[in-house]
Design the sequence.
């Protein structure tokens, strides 16, 4: 009975959101990491940073996200599970996989920047790309080429 009441409370807050904040709520839960910052959210959602920051603040106002520090956000564990279930029911597999791919690209680019900072003369290039299987079915396959000096397999 308590879990129904808790989920009903989350659903009430979710229904009061605009489409942009609803999409942010769902897709930011897909990676199953409870905390993130504005640049990560911007990359995952593929929207302008100002629009993403506003959506995140609307989620905080609705009680669906917490903001423990400026530009840092996190889900409560139960809210994260609710958002993941909503994403699975609402967003296509392709859209959920694309959000994950954008997050991986963000981390790849960040790691490559750190690598080049630590080894400034190193000339390896970093490529992030999305490819499809020959049948063009299933989720996008993420590939990295020469990432941090390691060839893709």
Sequence:
């Amino acid at each position: 009975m308590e879990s129904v009441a808790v989920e009903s409370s989350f659903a009430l807050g979710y229904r009061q959101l605009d489409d942009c904040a609803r999409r942010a709520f769902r897709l930011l839960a897909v990676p199953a990491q409870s905390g993130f910052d504005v640049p990560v959210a911007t990359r995952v959602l593929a929207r302008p940073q100002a629009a993403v920051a506003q959506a995140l603040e609307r989620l905080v106002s609705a009680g669906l996200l917490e903001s423990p520090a400026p530009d840092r956000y996190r889900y409560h564990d139960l809210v994260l599970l609710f958002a993941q279930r909503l994403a699975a029911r609402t967003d296509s597999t392709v859209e959920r996989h694309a959000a994950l791919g954008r997050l991986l690209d963000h981390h790849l680019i960040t790691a490559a920047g750190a690598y080049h900072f630590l080894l400034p003369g190193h000339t390896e290039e970093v490529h992030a790309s999305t490819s499809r299987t020959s049948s063009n079915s299933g989720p996008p396959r993420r590939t990295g080429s020469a990432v941090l000096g390691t060839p893709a397999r």
